[in-house]
Amino acid sequence: MEKIKNERRNFIKFSTLGMLAVALGGGIALSPHALKAQMKLRPPGAVNEKEFLALCIKCGQCLQVCPYHSIKLADFAKGHGIGTPYIDARERGCYACSAVPCVLACPTGALDHSCEKPEDIKMGIAVLEFPNKCLAMTNTLVPKGHSKRIHDFTNDQRNITQLERDVLEKLDTFEEKQCTICADMCPIPNSNGAIAMVSNGNGGMKPEVYEGCIGCGVCEELCPANQAAIVVKPKLSFKQYYEEGIRL
């Protein structure tokens, strides 16, 4: 509850400042162009963005039940949808809980209750955006201390869960090994249908994304490169990105 109070306090503070900025700036931040540019990675089950913004009552229930502290509430600095839940994948991805508790907690349908299991989640699609940063492709071993950023984020939480501790314990085992983190840490059941390591043709490996990817963002969060080599494109499906070439 304390986290929700802090999140609400922050977005109220920024929203007050934001209203003044919008008034002075002629409402530019709420233009349709800005709406498209500010597309966020929403929690599991989120309906289309326009409907989501209309349905979400900013209650914070999804945030409260998330056992991984993945969900945040947007302040004015994050663009449109002040107070609505989103996920910053580089900070903490969605671990696709088996019962999808965030969806169950949503009282309005902003998170569609037909999303009942991890395979139903469609948040976006993972993309190897910066292959030159990928440790696997450059045959660079995972460095010691690679998980410090993840440990620091977890330790900042007031109520660390055993699930989070389990992630950290597994993540630490990759030190000084060939990097397969994005594939081996993928939370999707039968994750070979979502992402796998394949030969890059130059003696190294590379992550290859498949149709089972739900865009949870765990690969982006845990990527040990200083800049994540693999990132999630919100709202896009495998077919849209990889077959139709749609870019947002």
Please provide a brief summary of the model.
With 248 residues, the chain is an alpha+beta fold. The protein is built from ten helices and six strands, in the order ααααββαβαααββαβα.
What does this structure look like?
- Helices cover 32% and strands 10% of the residues.
- The chain is an alpha+beta fold.
- It folds into two domains: 2-118, no CATH class; 124-243, no CATH class.
- The strands form three sheets. The protein has a two-stranded antiparallel ribbon. Strands 3-6 form a two-stranded antiparallel ribbon. Strands 4-5 form a two-stranded antiparallel sheet.
- A hairpin with a 5-residue loop joins strand 4 and strand 5.
- The chain starts with a helix and ends in a 5-residue tail after the last helix.
- 38% of the residues are buried.
- The model is unreliable at 11-34 (pLDDT under 50).
- Keywords: 4Fe-4S, Iron, Iron-sulfur, Metal-binding, Molybdenum.
